Amino acid sequence: MTVPHTNRLAREKSPYLLQHAHNPVDWFAWREEAFARARAENKPVFLSIGYATCHWCHVMERESFEDETIGAFLKAHFISIKVDREERPDVDKIYMTFVQSTTGGGGWPLNVFLTPERKPFFGGTYFPPAARPGYPSFLGLLQQVAELWRERKSEIVASAEELQARLELLTARDAPINLPLTPQTLRHAAQEFQAAYDPANGGFGGAPKFPQPAIPALVLRAAQRFGDAAAVKMVLHTCDAMAAGGLHDQLGGGFSRYAVDAEWGVPHFEKMLYDNAQLAQLYLDAFLVSGEGRHAEVARDILDYVLRDLTHPDGGFYSAEDADSEGHEGKFYCWTQAELAKLLSPEEFIVAANYFGITKDGNFVDHSHPAPLPGQNVLRAANPEVPPADVPLLAAAQAKMRTARARRLRPPLDDKILASWNGLMLGALARAAMVLDEEKYLAAAERNLQFIREKLWVPPAGGTSVPASQPGRSLAPPKAAGTLFHRWREGERDQVELLEDYAFQLDGVIQLHEATLAPPPLAFALELAEAMMAKFYDPAHGGFWQSRAGAADLILRVKDDYDGAEPSGNSVATLALLKLAALTGRDDFQQAAEATLQLAAQRLQSQPAAHATLLHALDFWLDEPCRVTLTGDTQAPEFHNLLHAAHSVYRPNTIIAGHADAVGIPPAPGKVTAQVCTGQTCQAPTHDAEQLRQQLRR
């Protein structure tokens, strides 16, 4: 029996790195040990970045990193480093920016060649095992780079120095331009998005189609601000089309990362926590705007999937599920016509096959596999209008299909728990608890926050957050800021601190506070905000650094404000600080948010699609937020009814406060009371939930 290779990655916690622990490649993790070896042996560094549920990362591993010849060549001529981009998004950001700037494209796996001083000189994404038009073979590329390093090292080092200087200029965010921030910026962004709208299939842009929840959510915000009914229809159509497509898991709930086609029909099957958190928020928006129960059901469907399949027993949320199982992409999710005909009764089969669009030839082929499975069907609501008499048959068929699918081998689970992504889901659950009036979502949100505080948070030493009861003050931070680490898995946390962890958690905790009006979440939000300001804010130019000062393993310190599949830390931090400033009267939070908006002012106008979440913050900043203040017995049913009513109207620039954190509003004696104020203008206090809704709709 052959003993498998075991390399240094076997000592890591990242599921992605562990996937490579038995490659014949002599992998290092991202540590000084690797670069010291590169310097000592005078070798270039081969850096490969991916993530556990990345389909093409699996393909390249199977084709190249499991190849003995390639493994031996890498060991002889390179120091090879594997990085999980989800554990180290700060590392990924630097080298992805380099590859995008030098090749015009990017993606994962990301493969970059570095000097021993971590400076990149060449890179790309997927490289095939055999050369084909436009792509060198991976081994051939390695041979070329090794020869160039041997014969022309001084030129490569000089080129790397020059490329880093260009990279520093490309990522610089230290020269804010004093451009006005006006509603016109929002109008322009919304018009640009609407121009990209696909009237046939929904969505904003063509194939491949990513949900990009921040974009339709911004279009809804702008539609309310400018009274644009047509824009609302675009968003609701998009939500309906995504929910009906193969992007949406029609049996198990939740959404895959993106669709490869324009019709949302064939997904790239991995399911990410961050996508589902953002989509849950979008469908809550859609429900509040449309009043249609189908949008609420999709939000429930997403959250129930997460609670069932992506939740640690102690309350943390796992990161993702893979696209592949048993070596085939989508095998867990797809069905053949023959398989369904055998599983279902003839009557059930007819109804289910029509509803899901099942055909003998199928609608999906796994082109990345040398022997794709035949006749695979991705389920979608191809013919959603089901006659009433057939509804029980469809329900029976779906129940049988769920039971049968549960017996299949599930895709691998990426069970690391990230503070950042957990913050996104925390906020979605907390808001859903109020919008949908579902107690289980609030319980899950509170358990999740407890998990994060126990596993990843170290409270500030020698001080506590100052109560926020006096408006206009810039209150002194505690003697030492608390610490929020990035990743927890199998009882161990890492030692990485990132802006996105503090920002996403801050946003989620504020939403939890607004769902309960209990003091502890607000106190924790203050601790998070103070720590984030102390560790990441740039008081000289505005904006937040992605990583802490003094991170010796990075060649650059970047202010990441690009909203991709995940919102940027700067975007979420800005909106969260604006909300927290409105809740507490803290001028320092308001000023930091305003400076960050000003730093990005030019890019907000020229690149709205890359800054959609920051445009949400601009929308909030442009006007005095609407403030709903509740006073009275928080345990009374009337309090819950008013709090639910405050969350049940689509008015995104609203904050919901209790008397304990109210700024300048005296407590009302007697009954539970709600009051709606904007600036210095307040409507009459009310004890009636329906009247509160009417006031919020004005």
Instruction: Point out poorly predicted stretches.
Output: 464-478
Major beta sheet, specifics? 5 strands, mixed
Report how far the terminal alpha carbons are from each other: 75 Å
Structural class: alpha+beta
Average pLDDT value? 93
Total helix count?
24
Overall form? globular
DSSP strand tally: 21
Strand content: 5-15%
Structure description:
- With 698 residues, the chain is α+β, with helices and mostly antiparallel strands.
- The strands form 7 sheets. The protein has a 5-stranded mixed sheet, with helices on both faces. A 4-stranded mixed sheet has the order 19-18-20-21, sandwiched between helices. Strands 8-9-12 form a 3-stranded antiparallel sheet.
- The protein has 4 domains: 8-171, Glutaredoxin (3-Layer(aba) Sandwich); 183-414, no CATH class; 417-623, Glycosyltransferase; 624-698.
- The termini are far apart.
- Strand 18, helix 23 and strand 19 form a beta-alpha-beta unit.
In a nutshell, what does this entry contain?
Helix content is 48%, strand content 10%. It has 698 residues and is an alpha+beta fold.
Indicate the topology.
Blueprint: H1 15-19, E1 27-28, H2 32-41, E2 45-50, H3 55-65, H4 68-77, E3 79-84, H5 89-103, E4 110-114, E5 120-124, H6 138-171, H7 183-195, H8 214-226, H9 229-244, E6 258-259, E7 267-268, E8 271-272, H10 273-290, H11 293-309, E9 320-321, E10 324-325, E11 328-329, H12 337-343, H13 346-356, H14 391-406, E12 413-414, E13 417-418, H15 419-435, H16 439-455, E14 457-458, E15 483-484, E16 487-489, E17 492-493, H17 499-516, H18 519-536, H19 569-584, H20 587-599, H21 601-606, H22 612-622, E18 626-631, H23 637-647, E19 654-658, E20 673-678, E21 681-682, H24 689-697
Parallel strand pairs: 1-3, 2-3, 18-19
Antiparallel strand pairs: 2-4, 4-5, 6-7, 8-9, 9-12, 10-11, 13-16, 14-15, 16-17, 18-20, 20-21
